[in-house]
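Q: I have 98 residues here and want to know how they pack in 3D. Can you give me a structure?
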Amino acid sequence: MESDAFRQPVFVGENGYSQKIDCVMDAIEFLEEWPVEKRGLLHAAACEACYSAYDGRKPVETAHKAFTTWARKIGVIEDIPTAPPWMTGPKISNADIL
């Protein structure tokens, strides 16, 4: 199986608790923990997309899109801006030249 990592993480939150969803398995775990009485057709579609991506039958991007759509629809997605590349690039230190 190729990497199941999402190109861009999805941040979800409920009851003051935020969680970073980095990969298909994280999305599956979040979906499986969702209360049964709150599940619906969109939840089922997101689960199917994630399981299919995990098994290699669908692209990871399909799972990312399905999970994001579901999270946005039910109102748990958090729009947290990503850090600009200059903040996350390699660390440069003067210690290397001393």
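Q: Anything worth noting?
A: The longest strand covers residues 5-14. The chain has a mean pLDDT of 88.
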